[in-house]
Design goal:
This protein is of the alpha+beta class. It has 2 domains: 11-166, no CATH class; 170-346, 2-Layer Sandwich (Muramoyl-pentapeptide Carboxypeptidase, domain 2), CATH 3.30.1380. 29% of the residues lie in helices and 21% in strands. The chain is built from 10 helices and 14 strands. Strands 1, 3, 4 and 5 form a 4-stranded antiparallel beta sheet that branches. The protein has a 4-stranded mixed beta sheet with strand order 2-8-7-6. Helix 1 (22-48) runs antiparallel to helix 2. The longest helix is centred in the first third of the chain and has 27 residues, at 22-48. Zinc ion (ZN) is lined by residues 263, 268, 270, 323.
Length: 354
């Protein structure tokens, strides 16, 4: 899905003012400030009933709107919530986005243009709700599958909608499985049903077939690359993770905790080439011909660049130009052609293929 740019209240929507109306404007401004404070308190009040939610966000954008548009929408009639990437269900670990549209009338009851809030994004995780202005996420049950309720409050009118969060079945999902820091932990013994060897490294069989073809086709065009890391067991991931934490601290964003790596699924390929000293996985890889070729062609083989500069906040991993994820040709084409930003968002669309 393409991300929509949502407009802030624009200057053209403001009415021309004359000198005589200054008193009225000042009064409205005062009321707007009071209303903003009141909303803030209302939302904090909501949190009092909801120990699991964590409201780290400020309400500046809602208050900004109140300041500039209070003369436009004075009486709220209803709030519509538009889910941008889903209707009523999501996979664990996926990201949900929505906007609220506020309908109402002006101070003299005149019709006014509805106001669209800026986009609100939440991660339907029961552990770390990533709250944005105006949202409260309530886990209705403690585990998966479960539901969350999102409440949007504005001028004291509140509207709720509910998502069902489904637990993933890794074995049946195949290459469309989503694994990240928030999905349920892969079993200590989980490994791909079948693997194959690509330049001496093990990788899931289908991903490996596609990868061998990709490496061969690139070579035909004069671009060389090789697989540095494919399938990794839980225990190998565990030692890599411990090492990363020992050297960079608990908040490091390079190595996945054991049970949370795509490499354990067998669908991740860390690629490098001879231009990189000792094949180290570094950001310099993006300067190579191999990376440029992959960026243009990898989706034809079912691979996508998983951790980009644009999705760091969503994935909570550093930019990794070497890490390509196999999701199958059909999904990879769709992902690239539709301009998706992250697998978290992409896989949250309900899809029969699951
Ligand atoms: Zn990797």
């Amino acid at each position: 899905m393409k991300k929509k740019k949502l407009s802030k209240p624009s200057a053209k929507r403001r009415k021309k003012r004359n000198n005589a109306s200054y008193i009225v404007i000042l009064s409205l401004l005062f009321m707007a400030i009071m209303a903003g404070v009141w909303i803030h308190q209302t939302l904090e009040g909501d949190l009092g009933n909801n120990a699991a939610a964590n409201i780290g966000a400020d309400y500046s954008s809602a208050q900004e709107h109140l300041m500039s548009n209070s003369a436009l929408i004075a009486n709220i009639e209803h709030i519509e919530i538009i889910a941008l990437n889903n209707t009523d269900s999501a996979l664990e670990g996926s990201v949900l986005s929505f906007v609220a549209v506020i309908y109402g009338t002006g101070s003299r009851g005149e019709p006014v243009e509805p106001f669209r809030t800026s986009e609100v994004t939440i991660e339907p995780s029961f552990y770390l709700p990533n709250l944005q202005p105006g949202s409260v996420v309530i886990p209705a049950s403690g585990g998966l599958p479960g539901t969350i309720e999102v409440l949007v409050g504005y001028y004291g009118i509140r509207k709720a909608f509910t998502y069902t969060i489904k637990r993933q079945d890794y074995t049946s999902l195949g290459p469309s499985a989503l694994v990240n820091k928030y999905t349920s932990k892969l079993d200590i013994n989980a490994r791909p049903a079948m693997t194959t060897n690509v330049n001496g490294k093990e990788i899931e069989a289908r991903a490996g077939e596609a990868l061998m073809q990709m490496i061969a086709d690139a070579k035909d065009e004069g671009v060389k690359m090789y697989l540095s890391s494919g399938f990794r067991s839980f225990s190998l991931q565990s030692s890599l993770y411990d090492r990363a934490v020992a050297s960079s601290g608990a908040n490091q964003n390079a190595s996945a905790p054991p049970g949370h790596s795509e490499h354990q699924l067998g669908y991740a390929a860390d690629l490098t080439c001879n231009e990189i000293v000792e094949g180290h996985l570094t950001v310099e890889f993006e300067q190579t011909q191999a990376f440029k070729w992959l960026l243009a062609n990898s989706h034809r083989y079912g691979y996508i660049l998983r951790y980009t500069r644009e999705n760091i906040a969503l994935t909570e991993y550093m930019y990794e130009p070497w890490h390509f994820r196999y999701i199958g040709e059909e999904l990879a084409f769709q992902y690239v052609n539709e301009g998706w930003r992250s697998l978290e968002e992409f896989l949250s669309i309900p899809r029969e293929a699951f």
